[in-house]
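Changelog-adjacent note: as of this version, every example in the card shows the full chain rather than a window. The one below runs 73 residues end to end.
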Amino acid sequence: MKTNEGTADRAVRAIAGIAALVVAFMFLGVTAGSILGIVVAVVGAVLLVTSLVGFCPAYTLLGMNTCKVKPSA
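Full-length structure tokens:
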């Protein structure tokens, strides 16, 4: 897996992922089995994992890359 997320992209994903998990557990009742809570928790977890790994499979499918690649000397 080649990194395809830039630093800003990873930071936004991490913040959004944490926020989604907090909302899912605090307000949407994910522990009580709320479908909306489970969906929001899964989306938050995916955002958090992709931000930590630096690789987004959807970016690969769409041909996107937000990672600034430095030219080799």
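Structural remarks: Residues 7-62 form one domain.
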